[in-house]
Design brief:
Blueprint (H helix, E strand, L loop, with lengths): L1 H20 L7 H5 L7 H12 L2 H14 L5 H24 L4 H8 L2 H35 L1 H5 L3 H54 L4 H11 L22 H11 L2 H8 L4 H16 L2 H4 L1 H10 L9 H9 L2 H39 L5 H22 L10 H25 L5 H27 L7 H22 L22 H18 L2
Helix pairs in contact: 1-9, 1-17, 3-9, 3-12, 3-13, 3-17, 4-7, 4-15, 4-19, 5-11, 5-13, 5-22, 6-7, 7-9, 7-16, 7-17, 7-18, 7-19, 7-20, 9-10, 9-15, 9-17, 9-18, 11-19, 11-21, 12-17, 13-22, 15-16, 17-18, 19-20, 19-21, 20-21
Length: 528
């Protein structure tokens, strides 16, 4: 029954995605990379949710909640504020310029070399960090829920390799051969399933804890583990309260406002109105995110306690224990869709970055759009294989999946955010400042976190990595502004309106954005 429901839902999503995207012109850049600039607010919101809410979030963040409780909800709730900022500040500028990729703006604002460096950082981050983590966490969840090692008679490591490659191959088919529209449509369907399935886990978990009563289950958790419901946390927690006002918001702004794998959905909007709707709809859903990615971890702690040595196994084990057998297959299919979403979204963005930013610019400048798309697909295939080889090796990461992901992401997230913010906020800062800012940001972060911290000072006596991100962000902004003052551009940069889409804002955007920010602040106050 589990296998049948899993296969049925998975095939349903694939068939609908093919049917809805079959007429899309994949031989043009806009058609393949941006879905023909035809995405509506609902489709954008669903795709944003699924691109973000994959197993590295569900498994990793619930594993963090298993250890530390509700304080890790900052990764979810503060995302809503970052999405509001993106909707009002960054998206109008992106759509006004008619860009296909974030590095494309960097070329216009600075120069081609800056664009290439940024594209290289994105691609390296996707290949070595994001794609392997999505595959590993997804395989871990599927293997635990279906007990794949016993099913195929192999060791955990052997089964992990097989599941990683199965997920990678299917995800590659969506991303490489379907383009953004196929990805976005499949995401929207899976988003509905994920909301339903994701909310089922805490419901059945609370019923199990409360002997058939959800309210009793909540009471038991609050009385038994009051320390797990403190959003402030201690100075030695994974998210000290002060980091919310430093690196945390910078990470959120990078992820939701400049990360190609995410913002590409909004870049494919029909117009600014639909793009803002998509971001703000998704922000509302992110406020509800802790119910799916935090509460189950606390329930798992109550049920399994110290019997679990690997916190990343808490969520799959909870699903296996509390969900009725008839629903396990459906939920596994939804989770499988979420895994595919994050994988194929990052892969599709990688294909976009390579095709437009590297192949067209350096390898074959005379390539027409069909040739560029074809080259991007070939690159995506190679990248997928590389990530599938790296993913199983993450079983040896010892500090927890989510913490590892967030810290390592700083190598490219803050440098890229720095030059984009300075690029939009100033008109005279030159290209050399951007090159220095992006390279020094990456190098200084690597030296700080992977040389000084472990080998010179010691992790326990070192500033939190989110504080380090904020310090380096400010340092590089100052360096760039100083260079701009001493060696300004000969001609000030002025963004031109390409008129590719209408940039009239959504009339309810302001009131919706303010309401979202108020709810986020109220949530922190309630759990403080």
């Amino acid at each position: 029954m589990q296998i049948i429901s899993f296969i049925t839902f998975t095939f349903f999503v694939a068939i609908v995605s093919y049917y809805k995207s079959r007429k899309n012109d994949e031989n043009t850049s806009d058609g393949y990379f941006l879905g023909g600039r035809s995405l509506t607010g609902v489709v954008i919101a669903g795709s944003l949710l699924l691109t973000n809410l994959s197993t590295e979030q569900i498994v990793g963040l619930n594993g963090a909640a298993f250890k530390e409780g509700v304080l890790v909800m900052a990764w979810e709730t503060l995302a809503a504020i970052a999405m509001v900022v993106t909707a009002f500040f960054l998206l109008p500028r992106y759509l006004k310029g008619g860009i296909t990729t974030v590095p494309q703006f960097l070329e216009r604002r600075y120069d081609k070399t800056t664009r290439t460096i940024a594209s290289g950082l994105f691609l390296t981050g996707y290949a070595v960090i994001l794609l392997p983590i999505v595959l590993y966490s997804g395989a871990l969840a599927i293997n635990s829920m279906f007990d794949v090692p016993s099913l195929i008679g192999m060791s955990k490591n052997g089964a992990l390799w097989i599941t990683v490659w199965a997920i990678g191959i299917i995800g590659s088919i969506y991303a490489i051969f379907g383009g953004l529209k196929a990805v976005a449509i499949s995401d929207t369907i899976n988003a509905v399933g994920l909301l339903i399935g994701g909310l089922m886990i805490p419901v059945f978990g609370l019923l199990a804890v409360g002997d058939g009563s959800i309210t009793q289950g909540v009471s038991v958790l609050l009385e038994s583990h009051p320390d797990k419901f403190n959003s402030i946390g201690s100075s030695d927690s994974s998210i000290p309260f002060g980091t919310i006002f430093t690196g945390m918001m910078l990470v959120q702004l990078f992820y939701w406002g400049t990360n190609q794998a995410i913002i590409q959905r909004a870049l494919g909007a029909q117009n600014l109105k639909e793009g803002q709707k998509g971001l703000l709809y998704a922000a509302v859903l992110k406020i509800l995110g802790p119910l799916i990615v935090v509460l189950p971890g606390i329930i798992a702690f109550h049920m399994f306690g110290d019997s679990l040595t690997n916190p990343d196994e808490a969520y799959p084990l909870l699903v296996k224990n509390v969900l009725p057998v008839v629903l396990v297959g459906f939920f596994a299919a939804v989770l499988f869709g979420a895994i595919l979403s994050s994988f194929n979204s990052a892969l599709n963005s990688s294909v976009t970055l390579f095709g437009l930013g590297i192949y067209k610019e350096y390898i074959n400048k005379d390539a027409d759009e069909k040739t560029t798309v074809k080259a991007g697909k070939k690159f995506g295939t190679v990248l997928a294989v590389v990530s599938m080889c790296i993913a199983p090796l993450l079983i040896y990461a010892s500090d927890g999946l989510f913490a590892y992901l967030q810290e390592v992401n700083g190598i490219y997230s803050i440098p890229i955010l720095t030059i984009i913010v300075v690029g939009y906020m100033t008109k005279s800062v030159p290209a050399i400042a951007a090159k220095i800012g992006i390279i020094s940001g990456s190098v200084l972060y690597i030296i700080s976190q992977f040389i000084i911290k472990p080998y010179v000072v010691g992790p326990e006596n070192y500033p939190h990595f989110l504080h380090v991100m904020a310090i380096l962000f400010l340092l590089n902004v100052v360096i760039m502004l100083a260079i701009g003052k001493l060696y300004p551009r000969d001609i000030e940069y002025n963004q031109k309106y390409t008129e590719q889409v209408d940039i009239q804002p959504w009339k309810y955007a302001t009131v919706t954005g303010l309401a979202i920010c108020v709810i986020v602040i109220a949530t922190f106050i309630y759990f403080s």
